[in-house]
């Protein structure tokens, strides 16, 4: 089946093409998912399969619900008063909103990197070791190996190896963001959620994060919210375009960008609104 074949119409107005797929089952499956902040509905009947080991971009104009959907994936929205949801989300087949679901365990399986780097006020080493400390890992050799492997994985080892005991707050913004990625990796997640991870960074630091995302492809399932069309084009395998709380179009990034089937997508990717 070609990359542009419409395979289903899960929600009113949504058009889903074959996304790039891997052999593995989808990492995350969202089914008929809606969300309300009090009386205000922010997400409408969204259905999407996020492919394992691939980079999926969520794009769309401000306020369309990208962050709300991303934060629903690891239940970060749970703490907001008056929130209500219907539908389902599963991670590798496990229903994350099941009454017996363990939210702490879920957040370990889905690491999150935020818009603004948020290193803890402690040393570089302890930031990366943090997930292991929380897990009660005592073995110093395991902690040291994990810190080094995670810093290498986040392309920060060479810059940080001689200052591991210095405060993480002394790192540059771009280094801090790579540190946050290293911390997320140290927790050994299956999925990395990234909410506009480059929006506070300069172009050079942004390029490094994009290169890093490229290197992490295959090892982790990555879901990235971005305002930057060019960034989505550079880093993602698949792209979901959201509009007014709905996934309007989803498929292989090259197809969504060059041959969108929905006029709204076309208008957005060609910069006619945003
Ligand atoms: N905590 C909240 N309480 C009430 N409404 C909210 C809350 N968070 C988001 N919203 C509303 O939900 C809708 C979707 O917001 P969301 O932040 O998910 O959009 P977004 O696409 O990520 O936007 P942006 O690109 O500007 O970050 C918006 O109308 C927003 O005002």
- What's the tally of helices? 10
**CATH fold-level name:** Rossmann fold
Do you know the CATH architecture?
Answer: 3-Layer(aba) Sandwich
User: Measured on Cα atoms, how large is the radius of gyration?
Assistant: 19 Å
Which class in CATH terms?
A: Alpha Beta
| Morphology | globular
Q: Quick one: biggest sheet? A: 8 strands, mixed
* H and E order: EEEEEHEEHEHHHHEHEHEEHH
- How many structurally independent domains? 1
Uncertain residue ranges: 1-10
Strand content: 25-35%
Work out the number of β strands: 12
Bound molecules: adenosine-5'-triphosphate
Report helical residue fraction.
25-40%
Protein name: Phosphate ABC transporter ATP-binding protein
Keywords: ATP-binding, Nucleotide-binding, Phosphate transport, Transport
GO molecular function: ATP binding; ATP hydrolysis activity; phosphate transmembrane transporter activity
Domain ABC transporter: 28-269
């Amino acid at each position: 089946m070609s990359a542009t074949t419409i395979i289903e119409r899960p929600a009113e107005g949504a058009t889903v093409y074959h996304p790039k797929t891997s052999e593995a089952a989808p990492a995350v499956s969202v089914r008929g998912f809606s969300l309300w902040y009090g009386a205000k509905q922010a997400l409408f009947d969204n259905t999407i399969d996020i492919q394992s080991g691939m980079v999926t971009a969520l794009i769309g104009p401000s306020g369309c619900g990208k962050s709300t959907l991303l934060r629903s994936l690891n239940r970060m929205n749970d703490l907001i008063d008056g929130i209500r949801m219907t539908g389902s989300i599963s991670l590798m087949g496990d229903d994350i909103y099941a009454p017996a679901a363990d939210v702490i365990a879920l957040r370990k399986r889905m690491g999150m990197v935020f818009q603004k780097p948020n290193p803890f006020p402690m040393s570089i080493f302890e930031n990366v070791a943090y997930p292991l400390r929380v897990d009660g890992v005592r073995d110093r050799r395991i902690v040291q190996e994990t810190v080094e492997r995670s810093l290498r994985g986040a392309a920060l080892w060479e810059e940080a190896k001689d200052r591991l005991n210095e405060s993480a707050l002394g790192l540059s913004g771009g280094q801090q963001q790579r540190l946050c990625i290293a911390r997320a990796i140290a927790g050994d997640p299956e999925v990395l959620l990234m909410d506009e991870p480059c929006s506070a960074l300069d172009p050079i630091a942004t390029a490094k994060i994009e290169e890093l995302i490229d290197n992490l492809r295959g090892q982790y399932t990555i879901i990235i919210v971005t305002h930057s069309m060019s960034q989505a084009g550079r880093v993602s395998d698949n792209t979901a375009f959201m509009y007014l709380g709905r996934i309007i179009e989803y498929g292989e990034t090259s197809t969504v960008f060059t041959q969108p089937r929905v006029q709204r997508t076309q208008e957005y990717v060609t910069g006619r609104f945003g």
